[in-house]
Amino acid sequence: MPDLSSLELLLAVARLGSLGRAAREAGISQPAASARMHTLERLAGFPLLERTPRGSVLTPAGVLVTDWARPLLEAADELDAGLTALREDHDSRLRVEASLTVAEYLLPRWLVTLRDARPGVSVSLRVANSTDVAARLLAGEADLGFTEGSRAPRGLDSAVVARDRLTVVVAPGHPWSRRRSPLTAAELAAAPLVQREQGSGTREVLSAALAAHGGPAAPLLELASTTALKAAAVSGAGPAVLSSLAVADDLASGRLVAVEVADLTLDRALRAVWPHGTQPTGPARELLTLTRATARRTKP
């Protein structure tokens, strides 16, 4: 695999039309940039650039590689922002608490946007279930939180920043994967499920949705992370109910199968939360503003 700096240089050449200008933007010499491109082409096994007296032009293969590289570099940027926020920093000016779904699938992109707008802001991130997020906010140990329950925890004000839907999933070999008719809510309530721990927003939403049927049965397994739940479901341990954000890739690849439930609503709102009667200030206010803007753009 090529290193990310070489891919960034290739994208700069595509944008600027010159290896020399791309080298200056990257802060390296032109011979060093040329060496990087030769190494990248050697790894790829085919030419990526056509050098001309007027500049550098991507070959058709080079155009394809840049199309593949662009989302990879964006993901790397999100990873860097997330890792930076997770590092313990006692001088942080923004302390964020987030539930697993928000932390894994939404917050990294928001942090990249915040960093671009305010590069001097230092962020620390702690990942916890929705109950713990609320407790730390109320204790004054965080500036802004994100939860995924059906409503804001008691004592907190909130703003909806995204919409999500829980999906019932099973391994391809599970009997439910071959059903021709939708599952009923009563059947789902009676079935032992692989579930999140008490206090998680996912568990709370599922329990509320199945309350008319006595709530979910005793868990087959109780696990504290989305990744663990997916792994258990993929292995065939049993059905699981997970965020549609978390299982999208697994459904597309066939590792998991979605099971339709006929008479049950599993939609939920993902919320930014802060102590009741206050207003977020400084970087917390800026992060809240950009998450609200994202919610408006993605509203159906």
Summed up, what is this model?
Helices cover 47% and strands 20% of the residues.
CATH superfamily of the largest domain: Periplasmic binding protein-like II
Number of helices: 12
CATH class of the largest domain: Alpha Beta
Shape: flat
What kind of sheet is the major sheet? Answer: 7 strands, mixed
Helix content: 40-55%
| CATH architecture level-2 label of the largest domain | 3-Layer(aba) Sandwich
Family: Belongs to the LysR transcriptional regulatory family.
Pfam family, one: HTH_1
Domain HTH lysR-type: 2-59
Protein name: LysR family transcriptional regulator
Describe this structure in words.
Helices cover 47% and strands 20% of the residues. With 300 residues, it is an alpha/beta fold. It folds into three domains: 4-75, Winged helix-like DNA-binding domain superfamily/Winged helix DNA-binding domain (Arc Repressor Mutant, subunit A); 87-161 and 269-298, D-Maltodextrin-Binding Protein, domain 2; 164-267, 3-Layer(aba) Sandwich (D-Maltodextrin-Binding Protein, domain 2), CATH 3.40.190.290. Helix 1 crosses helix 2 (19-26), helix 1 packs across helix 3 and helix 1 crosses helix 4. The longest helix is centred in the first third of the chain and has 27 residues, at 60-86. The two termini are 39 Å apart. Keywords: DNA-binding, Transcription, Transcription regulation. This is LysR family transcriptional regulator. Residues 2-59 form the HTH lysR-type domain. Pfam families: HTH_1, LysR_substrate.
